Amino acid sequence: MSASDIGIDLGTRNSLVYSAGRGLILSEPSVVIYDKNTERIRAIGEEAKAMAGKLNSNMEMIRPIRQGTIADYVILEKMLKYFISKAMGRRAFIKPRITVCMPSGTTEIERKALEEATYQSGARVVFLAKGPIAAAIGCGLDISKPFGNMIVDIGGGSTDVAVLSIGGIVVQNTIKVAGDHFNHAIMNDIREKHSLFISEDMAEEIKVRIGTAIEEAKPRIMEIRGRNVNTGLPKTTTISSDEIREALKDTTGQIVDAIHGVLEKTPPELAADIVDRGIVLTGGGALLHGMDALVEEKTGVHTLTVQNAMTVLARGTGMYADVMAKLQG
């Protein structure tokens, strides 16, 4: 691979760029601030995220990818150009070979539009990677062999569950439940039980600090601040990890059900491989405390969350073109 080749993981919450020569070189929010008066983009990525919550009535925050699908191709193209330019830096005069990890459920029409948007963003050659295959490559799994591997990628807007063999997907299911839904479940629960409005950033902090998918012997507690639903005034309260586990029970349960569903459709020979080799969890949502233990408990199959779960998809996307070329050899 050329050092200028890059892979882009377009995520609902964050977009990551991986360079063959430099590793992970960019991780920024998939957010754009649009000025309706001037019809121009004011900020992208980190700068746009910093402006959120401080916008005037003429400005709009846009997420071009929602629940794992592309919602706005025009804005997506501009965001892509920005990320590619920032990632390339002084190499910007070199047109790179770019692999983009397709959001799950992308149709053929959407594939062509995404490919065109990437070319318009400055690519010399464009490859489109399937998420589960890119995640497996990023994990270091040898997908060329006739063995069953199960990958569960829990992103921000969607969860991909797939069984792979000989470089391809045998069985797959995508559900629109993932890390962002954990946050919304926490926000709703705290509003209902504590009459407290909290921001999504606060919900994210709660999820990271005391969120759990399994019952804990010694529940953790956390003091949080928000706005009283009834009075509109600031309010402080204390919550526990037990409470958050209950709040997340429905969303974690839907992910487990999706894994069950794919296992039930998996051919017996590959299912036996998965029992031997285990289930691999990737993506930011996989970092929820006890998520792997919950999957293992409910399926009876050894489950592990990979190291650097949030970045393996980007890494695998960057390696995708060369790995697939060798497979097709």
Quickly describe the structure.
The protein is of the alpha+beta class and 329 residues long. It has helices at residues 46-51, 73-88, 108-120, 131-139, 179-194, 200-210, 241-265, 268-277, 291-299, 312-328, and strands at residues 6-10, 14-19, 23-29, 32-35, 40-44, 59-62, 65-66, 69-70, 97-101, 125-129, 149-154, 159-165, 168-175, 196-197, 221-228, 234-240, 279-282, 303-305. A 5-stranded mixed sheet has the order 3-2-1-9-10, sandwiched between helices.
Whole-number average pLDDT?
91
Question: Cα-atom Rg, whole angstroms?
Answer: 21 Å
Return residue spans where pLDDT drops below 50 for at least 5 consecutive residues: none
| Second-tier CATH architecture of the largest domain | 2-Layer Sandwich
Provide the helix percentage: 40-55%
Series of H and E elements: EEEEEHEEEHEHEHEEEHEHEEHHEHEH
Number of domains: 3
Beta-sheet strand percentage? 25-35%
- What is the general shape? flat
Structural class: alpha+beta
* Arrangement of strands in the largest sheet: 3-2-1-9-10
Number of helices: 10
CATH superfamily caption of the largest domain = ATPase, nucleotide binding domain
Total DSSP E strands:
18
Description:
This protein folds into 3 domains: 6-129, 2-Layer Sandwich (Nucleotidyltransferase, domain 5), CATH 3.30.420.40; 144-177 and 248-308, Nucleotidyltransferase, domain 5; 190-245, ATPase, substrate binding domain, subdomain 4 (Actin, Chain A, domain 4, Alpha-Beta Complex). The relative contact order is 0.15. Helices cover 40% and strands 27% of the residues. With 329 residues, it is an alpha+beta fold. The strands form 5 sheets. Strands 3-2-1-9-10 form a 5-stranded mixed beta sheet, with helices on both faces. A 5-stranded mixed beta sheet has the order 13-12-11-17-18, with helices on both faces. Strands 5-4-6 form a 3-stranded antiparallel beta sheet. The chain has 10 helices and 18 strands.
